[in-house]
Sequence to fold (624 residues):
Amino acid sequence: MIIGISVLTGFLFAAGLYLLLHKSFMKLIAGVIMFGNACNLFLLIAGGLVGSQPVFVSGNDEALPIDNMADPVPQAFILTAIVISLGVQAFVIVLLKRVYQTSNTNDLDTLTNTDDV
Amino acid sequence: MFSIDPANLMVAPLLIFMISGMLCLLFYKRVDIQRAIVISSSLIALIAAVKLLDLLTRDGFVTTQVGGWEVPFGITLFVDRFAGLMIAMTALLAVAASIFSFSDRVLSARKKRIGFYPALMFMLGGISGAFITGDLFNLYVWFEVMLISSFVLITLGSKRDQLQGGIKYVVINFVASSFLLLAIAILYGTTGNTNLAALAASLADPALQPITRLAAILLLVSFGIKAALFPFYFWLPASYHTPPIAITAIVAGLLTKVGVYTMIRTFTLLFPLQQHYQLQKFLLGASCFTALVGVLGAIAHRDIRKVLAYSLISKIGFILWGLSVYTSAAIAGAIFYTLHHMLVNTNLFFAAGIIGKAAGSYRISEISGLYDRLPLLSFVFIMLALTLVGIPPFSGFWGKFMLIDAGLLAHEYGSVAIILITTLLTLYSMMIIWSKCFLKKQDVKGQQLLPEGVFIKQCYHMYIASAFLLIVTFWISFNPSWLIEYTQRAAEQLLLPSNYVDAVIQR
Fold:
């Protein structure tokens, strides 16, 4: 499974980077989403996929056996990162819509107003 | 005199900025109440930061564990002298920027109604959080708080240029944050920690180096993008000149310096550069290029805001050059120069704002005769220009002297030469503005400038903010010994990372 997710992460990075570098607005949005998800998956794998049991304490204060327990820290990191990337993605989508309205173009290569000498 | 728990004092600026941001949101429609909240909270934060600085003179550091969790499990907060200086300077700039933004001439009343003050306060909160945190993942979270607020600030008002610059800014900073996340993933996977002190202790193990070196490079790229280091700086001149000048001034003064701060922190604590020879050489070359390319851009451009944005990049090169020389004296010089440059750079943008409002344009070719009509502004500008270039006895000279002296002692003659050439070219770029906008006589047939008396009455907030920062600059310039001594002690602290580790872990 680790190999499968690793390969998937690699593909997501490749696709995300390609779309980020693309000149179309829609593809930029897709790129931002894919790149963010690739980072989250990378966090999951790099944190180590150990165990499959969720981390819970049993109701009567007994410690559960820890040998098959998943590491909760990367999951907490990913949860935080997902929330943050949701905010960034929402901002990017609105930003690109406003750019489309004001500049009337769907091509990033034509947005050169800010680079004039 | 009542005493405050040092741990409370340390989080005070962060809490004050965050709470006042929320209060501003509550009074979303009432700009006058927001103004009162913003100026009073910035002043309180400044007082707290100065008190913290005083405390750090004696103790050297303050640290606490949020929620009382034991060390590697909870979030550590840690402030040493370097962080204390940065927090104090942030609060000082917050006061100046709030006064400056009160003027409706630099930031229209409409933009204040659509959320300028809440975004400013949350950005300052994020910056303070990034300075005090002792945990890498927590640093990522503060970075995002700061960045999302700055996205809002840069695109506030949705002018076409702002939005176009905004895309470049948002996307490149998104990639930089993702790189930080990747580095955190690698470091957590190899050591099982994100606490900076625990990480520093684990990373000393040479067996981990082949993997953690990848994390070091990712961190270098991530912070390099945020600090506008040489190959990664292109987003800065594309976006910084587009928003209203009050926003540009505070964003340009603070955001890149947070990148510089985290870079100095990372490469003294986690990956000390004397153990990472290739990184040191890369940083040395990249910072020299940053200094040169930045100043060449400043000479090439004909828009005052772009000239200042490029000269900002060039000075980032100076600071990171001080880090890459990696002696105690060089890092002290880098810290001094950072503080000096935060003051002067923000104030230069203030002055540019006044020029822009007085002459109605930011293009150098369309402005002339400022010296005849606006003598006070001319005084402020030439003082700032000379301070930026580093003419003695201004603060730029002391910072540059410390850097060059340290560079010569470390036998880095080639890069010292580049830094000195850069200084000369900075003088040239500033003198272009001085001679064309100020000294050149105004065309008689053209539109006449207002006399300065009338102009000051219209926008006295801008002059007050500029004068406030200029007085602080003068104070540092003519009384530099305490700050030099403070930065030297801060640099010694940074070069002994074992003290940081002991202070956090053995509590």
Q: What stands out?
A: Chain A touches chain B through 35 residues (CB under 8 Å). Chain A has one domain: 2-53+67-107.
